[in-house]
Design a protein that fits this description.
about 280 residues, globular
Length: about 280
């Protein structure tokens, strides 16, 4: 018992120290962002477009709307596809050969660097279309979302007790009704959390957009044209030679960071609200 207690104490100590190290760097990043960039957040950042290089002022309005457009379209493409794929694996395919292949491919895709996805979509979409576009950027981000959603939905639906399915079948409900009225309703907390986390996953992506939606200095929201996004604009401004660009880059970093945090907090709050009812 003494050896077991010693091993348990060592393991607990290492885990606690590791957690505090992670939290330390997390708070360090957040505090640094607030300290260096918070005073650059003002109303003009959200209401004004970018100005000519070297000029003072300007804002990120077009980049913010472009980010919302690309992420929104990617969510429309990726979330339904991922949810339906996860339902197929959990409820229809189960342990079949095809389902195992899909699971393995999905797990492999979650570890692929996002820049590889960007190059793939560049060859598959950008080159045939003859230029960068919102569509290409959305497809790239959707491809990043789909494997995450598929794997997560598959695992979440497996947690729903089989007794609920059997009770619904016993009442004469067809399979699709059982899935959408019983299984999905029981797992709604996990499904919503997965959707929010998947959106937060792609919200800060830059590399795939460099090869797909690229960037634009002109205000246009056409799906077949390049568009400015917050992540790419932040990258360009941070690498630029002008102080005004650096200020806007810090502002963009704060907007992105706290947007991701809000999505994560929203998923936790939804979970708490659902279980407390």
């Amino acid at each position: 018992m003494r050896k077991r207690k010693i091993k348990n104490y060592i393991g607990l100590s290492i885990s606690t120290i590791s957690a505090f190290i992670g939290l330390f760097f997390l708070f360090w990043i957040i505090v640094s962002l607030i300290e260096k960039g918070f005073h650059y957040i003002n109303w003009s950042v959200f209401t004004q477009n970018a100005v000519s290089p070297g000029d003072e002022g300007g804002g990120l309005k077009f980049a913010i709307f472009g980010q919302l457009e690309v992420v929104g379209l990617a969510s429309l493409l990726g979330i339904p596809t991922g949810i339906l794929g996860g339902i197929y694996l959990s409820e229809y395919g189960k342990d079949s050969f095809l389902s195992n292949v899909i699971r393995n491919v999905s797990d492999a895709m979650t570890s692929i660097p996002s820049i590889i996805i960007g190059i793939f979509v560049y060859a598959l979409v950008v080159v045939p279309m003859g230029g960068f576009s919102v569509i290409a950027g959305s497809i790239a981000l959707a491809l990043l979302m789909i494997p995450i959603v598929i794997s997560s939905i598959d695992n979440i639906l497996k947690l729903v007790p089989n007794e609920l399915r059997e009770a619904a079948y016993a009442l004469g409900a067809p399979k699709y009704i059982v899935i959408f009225k019983v299984v999905a309703k029981e797992a709604i907390v996990g499904i919503v959390s997965v959707i929010l986390l998947a959106i937060s996953r792609i919200l800060g992506e830059t590399a795939p957009l460099l090869f797909t939606s690229f960037n634009s200095n002109f205000e246009s929201y056409k799906l077949n044209k390049p568009i400015a996004t917050l992540t790419v604009t932040m990258y360009d401004y941070a690498m630029g030679p002008y102080d005004s660009w650096h200020h806007l880059a810090w502002a963009a970093a704060i907007i992105l960071t706290f947007s991701v945090l809000l999505f994560n907090i929203a998923s936790r709050l939804f979970s708490y609200w659902r279980f407390s009812r």
